[in-house]
């Protein structure tokens, strides 16, 4: 399996999962999403640690990995997997690049992978403040949260729906948790920690 698919096939872990979160019943517009997330969309540089966990339904098993991430508004998202297999991934709005031991081993156009494109767009929309793009491809539902913000993304297009059920995002000042539910029963949980911005 290509190391890139560690993002989707191994996942990226979260705090306590929110499978039973209660919906407010109201769709969220681009303007209200911007108000909800505040400074999140004004970030030029953000970095920290991640832990990731993926439940694979067919195998009835969970795979874990961890490492460091860095988002730069100009350079994109860098995902440095330290465990279990050291791998460097660079994600831009148009492509995914995998490197091992400093050598490029894979380059993929995000349009070739609907799930990849969806995840890429979510990260760039959240960190780059492109709320119109997010609400164009997803129906955004605000969920109740004890503190901070919590919402669910439901894909609009039929092609994306065939791969993806929902994405849940949760955070306080910045994104902390991403929960991705796939149509085949697989579930990915993502946790970001020790986040530093500038």
Helix and strand topology:
Elements: H1 6-10, E1 23-27, H2 30-37, E2 45-56, E3 61-72, E4 76-83, E5 87-91, E6 95-100, E7 103-109, H3 114-128, H4 131-137, E8 138-143, E9 149-155, H5 158-161, E10 164-171, E11 175-182, E12 187-197
Antiparallel strand pairs: 1-8, 2-3, 2-12, 3-4, 4-5, 5-6, 6-7, 8-9, 9-10, 10-11, 11-12
Helix pairs in contact: 2-4, 3-4
InterPro entries: LolA/LolB/LppX (IPR029046), OM_lipoprot_carrier_LolA-like (IPR004564)
Pfam family, one: LolA
Subunit structure: Monomer.
Termini separation comes to 35 Å
Query: Which structural class best describes the helix and strand composition?
Result: alpha+beta
The averaged pLDDT comes out at 77
- Unreliable parts: 1-26
Rg (C-alpha, Å): 16 Å
Q: Which strand order spans the largest sheet, edge to edge or round the barrel?
A: 1-8-9-10-11-12-2-3-4-5-6-7
Number of domains: 1
Share of helix among residues? 10-25%
- By CATH reckoning, the class would read Mainly Beta
């Amino acid at each position: 399996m290509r190391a890139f698919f560690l993002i989707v096939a191994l996942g990226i872990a979260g705090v306590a999962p929110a499978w039973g979160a209660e919906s407010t019943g109201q769709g969220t517009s681009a303007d209200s999403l911007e108000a909800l997330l505040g400074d999140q969309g004004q970030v030029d540089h953000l970095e920290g640690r991640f832990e990731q966990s993926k439940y694979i339904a067919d195998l009835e098993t969970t795979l874990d990995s961890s490492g460091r991430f860095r988002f730069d508004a100009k350079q994109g998202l860098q995902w440095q997997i330290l465990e279990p297999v050291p791998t460097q991934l660079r994600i831009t709005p148009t492509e995914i690049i995998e490197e091992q031991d400093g050598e490029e081993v894979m380059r993929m156009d995000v349009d070739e992978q609907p799930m990849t494109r969806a995840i890429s767009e979510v990260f760039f929309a959240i960190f780059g403040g492109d709320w119109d793009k997010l609400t164009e491809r997803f129906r955004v539902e605000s969920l109740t949260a004890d503190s901070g913000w919590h919402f669910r993304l439901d894909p609009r297009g039929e092609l994306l729906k065939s791969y993806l059920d929902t994405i849940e995002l949760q955070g306080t000042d910045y994104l902390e948790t991403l929960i991705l539910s796939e149509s085949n029963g697989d579930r990915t949980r993502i946790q970001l920690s020790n986040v530093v911005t500038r």
